[in-house]
Amino acid sequence: MALRGIWQLKRLIVSYCDWGGSSRGIRAFIESNLPAFKESNPQLEVIAELSRGQHPCLKAFYKNKNERVVCVKNLTSEDVLLHATRLRNALGRKVKKLPTRHVTKHPSVQGTWTTDVRF
């Protein structure tokens, strides 16, 4: 995703094995979908990395020095493309847990509303 017009994903490394069965979908992705993905994203550096004996994964490096790794073992090429697109669209921020279920600027003085009110 672009933050203020700048894409946040710098580099995407596609790591796969040329022999293993769990890399079947990512090998199909590299043959069919990866060239079109590279053409549609010229701002992105896409590297295909051969790592034998390892499960396939997508490694994303963002401008804010964060890194995300997604395991794509036993997935189809369409699912791998979906994960690559999600990594491209992400901002690269860490996941932050919210303190309450609802977040508001003006919290209620009386407390949050619930269905089990006793009169």
From TrEMBL:
Gene3D superfamilies this protein is in?
Answer: Glutaredoxin
Q: What is this protein called?
A: Large ribosomal subunit protein mL43
Q: Where in the cell is it found?
A: Mitochondrion
Q: Which Pfam families match?
A: L51_S25_CI-B8
Task: Name a biological process GO annotation.
Answer: mitochondrial translation
Alphabetized GO MF terms: structural constituent of ribosome
Cellular component, GO, one term? mitochondrial large ribosomal subunit
Name the major location. mitochondrion
Domain named Ribosomal protein/NADH dehydrogenase: residues: 18-91
Homology family? Belongs to the mitochondrion-specific ribosomal protein mL43 family.
Kindly state which keywords UniProt assigns to this record, in alphabetical order.
Answer: Mitochondrion, Ribonucleoprotein, Ribosomal protein
